[in-house]
Amino acid sequence: MLGIGVAxxxxxxxxxxxxxxxxxxxxxxxxxxxxxxxxxLDVLTTVQDAETGQRGFLLTGDERYLAPYREAVNTLAxxxxxLVERIGDRQExxxxxxxxxxxxxxxxxxxxxxxxxxxxxxxxxxxxxxxRDTGLIYMREIRETLxxxxxxxxxxxxxxxxxxxxxxxxxxxxxxxxxxxITGVLIGALALIMKxxxxxxxxxxxxxxxxRGLEERVDERxxxxxxxxxxxxxxAYIVTHDLRAPLVNIMGFLSEFDASxxxxxxxxxxxxxxxxxxxxxxxxxxxxxxLPEAIGFIRSSTRKMDQLINAILKISRDGRRKLQAEKVxxxxxxxxxxxxxxHQVSAVDGSIDIDVxxxxxxxxxxxxxxxxxxxxxxxxxxxxxxxxxxxxxxILPQGRGIxxxxxxxxxxxxxxxxxxxxxxxxxxxxxxxQQGEGIGLAHVxxxxxxxxxxxxxxxxxxxxxxxxxxxxxxxxKITRGSDI
Length: 484
Prior knowledge:
With 484 residues, this protein is of the alpha+beta class. It is built from ten helices and seven strands. It has helices spanning 2-60, 67-87, 91-119, 123-131, 134-269, 277-320, 330-340, 342-347, 365-381, 440-450; strands at residues 325-329, 351-353, 360-364, 390-399, 402-409, 454-460, 464-472. A hairpin with a 3-residue loop joins strand 6 and strand 7 (464-472). The chain is rod-shaped and about 210 Å long. Mean pLDDT is 81; it is low at 480-484.
């Protein structure tokens, strides 16, 4: 747009300069022709004045009538020279110049001769000179030549005036078009400037929004790091505590085992020698009671340690598993999770309500399937005895690429003090009448956070619980998705 405007301005300036120059040339030529026309009329008037003065003198004999003649004789030479100078190299005049000069000379000679005859008192001869019409012929040829010069000059002037008017009209139109073009360029430039300003403002707003989003993401990542650090510390404490307890049991029972082994060693190493009855009885008690009990407790503690280590390894393997981002319909996963526990729910006259619309996300199908399956299993596992179980699910889009999934039940419920505890590894809440190691919900939270989301719970003892899952709709757009 700017280039077009500059080109238009350059074109208009060049055209205007050319038209102004042409107009100047026309003006100069017009002035020159007007001066030439004035010289033509001046020469003709001078000759006519000389002839008038001659005739007045011939009629009256009075010398006063010769004043125009004398003036003409004194100025004609200069006027003739000026005429020739103003004709210059114009070819349309040059062919008649010599004839005009000759006729002027003859006319002046004829006028002068008549005056001389009159002064010599030869009045009749002077009148006869006039009557011979010689001077008339000279004058007619002079007048025809000068009239022709005047006609040529007038024709040139009409053409020049027409050209000058045309140039002026063109200059006017160029000025008008230039003004319109400049106005258009100005409007276009203003429009472009406004557009650039709007784009700049929009870009600035986008940058500000990105900065705000970046700050939010930094804050969010900072919170995630703080939370992860706290979880690591809590995990380290839990693991250390829960693994240390079986070790302490093993060490204690090994000491008891060692103590129980001494009477047995004494009995065996006696090689049939008589021992006090008390030592024999201690050896029998150790073999029958103490050693089997110690071995049983040691075996139980090692089994507990094995279960804890396997749970830790399970969570660790899930955390290292490479996520596969794909299109997943949450409704299909909820229906599948409900179907997996439908027979258990039906057995207690319960119901499952998954009347939700289809909602597609891009996430890891296996992780989501495990998360929802675990929540539905827990709802069945911790149902309220004597009450028909009801499980429901909802999908709630949260905007900005986030969706929330609520899984609700009317089971036992959870005390408010245990809302965070239930997501910790190896921690369980409420009445411990169900088998488990306390890793289910910890596993769920590990999985959902690995997908860039989180899980919280709202519950009331005796009335039921609702687990809120928040999940990004596109796993590829989150930082953790870089490992996908």
